UniProtKB/TrEMBL annotation:
Keyword Oxidoreductase in record: yes
Protein family (similarity comment): Belongs to the UbiH/COQ6 family.
Cited SUPFAM superfamilies: FAD/NAD(P)-binding domain
Gene Ontology molecular function, alphabetical: FAD binding; monooxygenase activity; oxidoreductase activity, acting on paired donors, with incorporation or reduction of molecular oxygen
BP GO annotations: ubiquinone biosynthetic process
Cofactor: FAD
Stretches assigned to the FAD-binding domain: 3-335
Domain of life assignment: Bacteria
Pathway: Cofactor biosynthesis; ubiquinone biosynthesis
Protein's recorded name: FAD-binding domain-containing protein
A Pfam family this chain is assigned to: FAD_binding_3
Length: 407
């Protein structure tokens, strides 16, 4: 089978890229190991995604936002970070737009909407239940082989297959990889007091806790713990879990009643040494696998979609080769420029706030009081507040896609 573009991974990043490039009329195949039912109607996975204004704008341009029910979108007015019992907080936002920092939407809701945005496109095909087991890069095309023995050749291969990207490995691209030995537990809870639409995070001794606002009386509890402790917590029955959460959150939110089981994510951060190779590019988590603490993984995934599609859409529209090396090199430079500071800033925040040795504790206290001057805090704030200045080109391409596809 031949196609112009093959995207490995129909997660939110792969689906968004397929939608962005579809306006060119190019033939695109998405390949994912998950079955069609899991792609079309993903089950709740505990992840509540904090979206920036830029990401909301990108999702609007991609025709994904319209497919999300307004009842599934929750206000995020401000974020506050605390160190242990200290009353001082590092504050982000509220932003200039609507007085909000952004909003919260479940990962499964975003995935479902992104799938719906591509499923009826004539030039996009989704091959579900298909695992890529090998790939071969030639001068004029890349060939991937699926577990059922099928071959697909393409002018351009996209790796959107998670932070543990098989495509990245097969292309011989290395990655900085930090296995943190901790797991993040996430689940919905009913709370006894109002969260004021503020996301709150506490770096406590041996644990990091966060509470993300999900409308009236509901929130997402987020706990980062050593993996063995996380496994023990996951086994608790609902009532015992509620009591344990209340104890760990020191009763700040009154009674806590679990509304879902806790989902566990072992924490590994990754940053690919290269984002492109001959006839290939990496996007989403395959390029940059962020620590979730600053909530930027998917926001950067959408940035990778924006940067790559702006480079190769004009080429596809002219009938050119989408694997144009100069365009891919520009994509790499742009995405590295945007993602590297935020990746390093996030890692420095995690390092500073989870180090319980006395010098780090003193540095934390000082940094909280000088919060407005911290370079790491500024890099994160800049990303959150970044005006959606790059909307115009993407909007233009999606409008032309809608015209062409009559949607
Ligand atoms: C607890 C938690 C909280 C988070 N909170 C936020 C937040 O608030 N804000 C934010 O922006 N981000 C957040 N993130 C990050 C966000 O969830 C990810 O960045 C995003 O889901 C990555 O999307 P992706 O499409 O790149 O990869 P994935 O969602 O990992 O999708 C990859 C796809 O590739 C497929 N695949 C893998 N290997 C193969 C193969 N060999 N062949 C075929 N298919 C394959 C998989 O089945 C999968 O469907 C959070 C993450 C976690 C864990």
């Amino acid at each position: 089978m031949y196609t112009q573009i093959v995207i490995v991974g129909a997660g939110p990043a792969g689906l968004s890229l397929a939608r962005a490039l579809s306006s060119s009329g190019a033939r695109i195949i998405l390949v994912d190991t998950q079955q069609l039912t899991a792609l079309s109607d993903p089950s709740f996975d505990g992840r509540e995604i904090a979206l920036t204004h830029q990401s909301i704008s990108d999702l609007e341009q991609l025709g994904v936002w319209d497919r999300i029910d307004a009842k599934e979108v929750f206000t995020l007015r401000e974020a506050q970070i605390y160190d242990g019992k200290s009353p001082y907080a590092l504050r982000y936002g509220p932003g200039e737009i609507d007085g909000q920092l952004g909003c919260m939407v479940s990962n499964c809701t975003i995935r479902k909407a992104a799938y719906e945005a591509v499923k009826d496109l004539e030039n996009v095909e989704v091959l579900a239940g298909a695992k890529v087991v090998s790939l071969e890069v030639g001068k004029r095309s890349v060939r991937i082989t699926l577990s059922d023995g099928k071959d697909i050749s393409a002018a351009l291969l996209i790796g959107a297959d998670s932070r543990f990207s098989f495509v990245r490995d097969q292309l011989g691209i290395g990655a900085e990889m930090n296995r943190l030995g901790k797991a993040m537990l996430v689940g919905r809870v009913k709370i006894g007091s109002w969260h004021d639409d503020i996301a709150t995070e506490w770096f406590d001794h041996g644990q990091t806790l966060a509470l993300l606002p999900l409308g009236d009386g509901v929130a997402s509890a987020v706990l980062t713990l050593p993996e063995s402790e996380a496994a023990t917590l996951q086994k608790l029955k609902a009532e015992a879990l509620g009591q344990e959460l209340q104890r760990r959150y020191r009763g700040r939110f009154g009674t806590m009643t679990p509304l879902s089981p806790l989902h566990s994510y072992p924490l590994t951060t990754t940053y690919s040494k290269r984002f492109v190779a001959h006839r290939a590019a990496l996007i989403g988590d395959a390029a940059v696998g962020m620590h979730p603490v600053t909530a930027h993984g998917f926001n950067l995934g959408l940035a990778s979609v924006r940067h790559l599609s702006e480079e190769i859409l004009p080429i596809l529209e002219r009938g050119g080769d989408p694997a144009n090396p100069a365009a891919l090199a520009r994509y790499e430079r742009r995405h590295r420029r945007e993602s590297r500071p935020i990746y390093l800033a996030t890692n420095s925040i995690v390092g500073l706030y989870t180090d319980d040795r006395p010098p780090a504790r003193i540095a934390r206290r000082v940094s909280l009081r000088l919060a407005q001057l911290l370079p790491a805090r500024k890099a994160v704030q800049r990303m959150l507040m970044k005006p959606a200045r790059e909307r115009t080109r993407l909007r233009r391409s999606v409008i032309s896609s809608k015209l062409r596809l009559g949607r």
